[in-house]
Task: inverse folding
């Protein structure tokens, strides 16, 4: 059995191989200035899959934008705190002069997107020539059309404004376009999260069924778009690394139009295999309000750095809970100082209201000395014998940038730690396997202030020198995955969990 916090990935005949990770602190972006004439100026469709990193509490996160004239732009973004629309999905045309819209549910209620474990599919289908105002912009999330509300001020609709009839779109203008930023003010409101299967269609207002379908399990799944793209159309698969603007780069257009985008502040490690058809574990930003500051998570929720917030010690926790199976992941520790723990926590201890604490198996490092400690599921500090003390076994010291491998065997009830590919001598049993199997184990780490952890669940944000996948071919690890163990992604969870 596998518990998954948030939405699962989907699988079917069409596989999405790669996504592109946009790290907000890097102001990562893809840019292109279009020239020539579009197929149309009033009709287009934008389709993409996204997995959010931190749902920002202060700033917006721009997905796609284009200059219309001067400083006026069209923009698609998730909104930060502004007039009570934190987490809302916004479309603004001509800086709002020709329409501002948000996804709502009616009654002035906005839909907020805060699940950092899920892949969402968005389709924005635009035709400003439509005589009926409600038909000019159609927004679909996971195949379902959502109501669009306009001009929200403090949670209330003050002006019923829709997209101006016959509006000429900036997206279809020979001008600067950006994926991952506000193009009107370069480098501002950078995107924070993953994008995959990005289609831009020039000249038609498409239905979501051109990009996805409901599978036999009732889950919205991607399909490959097979229609025409128009002159300005492009298809981003993010399947190749590089820094060029031609077809060998990560900004390559594979529609056949050669509308390639130039990557800025994007590295080879930003091309990942975390996709809608194989969702990898990340750290759960939904817990941030209760246990740490959202600014402490970065790199697509794989890097935790308590030095970036003001909360002191925190405990980042993974998005999956496993109750069976054999699992492997790595944690890179940039700095070897101060007290820290890396291991697992029981799902029953995870709460959005308070830190979960390290109730489980892990190791603690203090001043570069490592000890293994155990805690049960019923008390704050209990060893495996239940004596309200910690059982410790002295292990080797560690240095900056050491990489720890964690082998978690939920079938046999034990956990083992490796350092830089070498095993610690002892293998430790979980305290109460029955409880762990019912509640599930979640990867975690904790420590004092100014701690940093780079988690690699198979989708690393740090450079890998060797490159090792599990037996299914999933994941990218520095050290060899032990036989019979697997990376924490939904394809493996479905098969072995």
Result:
């Amino acid at each position: 059995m596998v518990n998954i916090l948030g939405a699962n990935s989907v699988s079917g005949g069409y596989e999405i191989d790669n996504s592109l990770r946009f790290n907000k602190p890097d102001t990562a972006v893809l840019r292109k200035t279009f020239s020539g004439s579009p197929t149309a100026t009033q009709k287009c469709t934008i389709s993409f899959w996204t997995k959010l990193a931190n749902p920002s509490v202060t700033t917006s996160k721009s997905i796609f934008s284009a200059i219309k004239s001067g400083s006026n732009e069209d923009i698609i973004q998730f909104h930060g705190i502004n007039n009570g629309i934190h987490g809302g999905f916004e479309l603004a045309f001509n800086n709002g002069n020709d329409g501002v819209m948000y996804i709502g549910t009616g009654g002035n209620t906005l839909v907020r997107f805060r699940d950092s474990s899920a892949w969402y599919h968005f389709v924005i289908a635009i035709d400003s020539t439509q005589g009926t105002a409600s038909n000019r912009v159609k927004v679909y999330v996971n195949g379902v059309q959502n109501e669009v509300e306009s001009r929200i001020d403090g949670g209330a609709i003050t002006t019923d404004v829709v997209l101006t009839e016959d509006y000429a779109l900036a997206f279809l203008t020979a001008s600067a376009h950006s994926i991952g930023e506000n193009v009107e003010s370069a480098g501002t409101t950078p995107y924070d999260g993953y994008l995959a299967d990005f289609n831009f269609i020039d000249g038609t207002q498409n239905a979501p069924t051109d990009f996805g379908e409901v599978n036999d399990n009732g889950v919205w799944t991607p399909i490959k778009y097979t229609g025409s793209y128009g002159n300005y159309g492009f298809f981003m698969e993010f399947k190749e690394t590089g820094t060029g603007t031609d077809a060998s780069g990560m900004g390559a257009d594979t529609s056949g139009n050669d509308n390639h985008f130039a990557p800025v502040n994007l590295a080879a490690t930003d091309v990942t295999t975390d996709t809608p058809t194989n969702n990898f574990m990340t750290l759960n930003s939904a817990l941030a309000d209760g246990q740490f500051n959202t600014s402490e998570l970065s790199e697509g929720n794989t890097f935790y750095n308590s030095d970036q917030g003001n909360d002191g010690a925190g405990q980042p926790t993974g998005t999956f809970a496993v109750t069976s199976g054999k699992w492997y992941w790595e944690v890179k520790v940039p700095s070897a100082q101060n007290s820290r723990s890396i291991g697992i926590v029981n799902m029953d201890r995870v709460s959005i209201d308070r830190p979960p604490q390290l109730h489980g198996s892990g190791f603690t490092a203090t001043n570069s000395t490592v000890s293994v400690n155990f805690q049960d599921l019923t008390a704050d500090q209990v060893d495996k014998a239940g004596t309200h003390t910690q059982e410790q076994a002295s292990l080797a010291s560690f240095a900056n940038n050491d990489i720890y491998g964690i082998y978690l065997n939920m079938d046999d009830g034990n956990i083992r730690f490796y350092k830089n590919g070498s095993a610690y001598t002892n293998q430790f049993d979980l305290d109460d396997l029955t409880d762990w199997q019912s509640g599930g184990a979640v990867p975690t780490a904790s420590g004092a202030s100014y701690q940093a952890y780079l988690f690699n669940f198979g989708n690393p944000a740090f450079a890998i020198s060797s490159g090792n996948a599990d037996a299914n071919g999933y994941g990218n690890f520095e050290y060899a995955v032990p036989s019979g163990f697997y990376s924490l992604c939904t394809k493996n969870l479905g098969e072995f969990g």
Summary: Helices lie at 288-291, 433-439, 490-496. Confidence is low (pLDDT under 50) at residues 1-8, 356-361, 363-394.
